[in-house]
Write a structure and sequence with these properties.
Layout: H1 2-11, E1 19-23, H2 29-41, H3 43-48, E2 50-54, H4 58-67, E3 75-76
Parallel strand pairs: 1-2, 2-3
Length: 77
Amino acid sequence: VAVWLYEAWLATGRPMPVTIAEIGPGRGTLMKDMLRTLSRLDPALTAGASFAMIETSPRLADVQRQTLAATPATIGW
C-alpha cells in the first residue's frame, strides 16, 4: 500500500501539503508498516505529510498510539 501511495504521490507532482489517512485502522500495524516503508522511500514525504487515523473506538485508539509510539511521524486521531 505504501509503495502504491508513493507512486501516486509522485505521479501527481509531489504535492505538499499531503494527508495520508487510514479509516478503521484496527491495531495500527498497517500505518506502522506504511510509515516504515515511506520513510525509506522518501524521508521528505514522511517529514512533510500529515498522517491521520480515523478511529471511533477509544480503546483501539489507545492501542494504535502504543503501536505507533516509536514512529517519528506526527499522527493525529
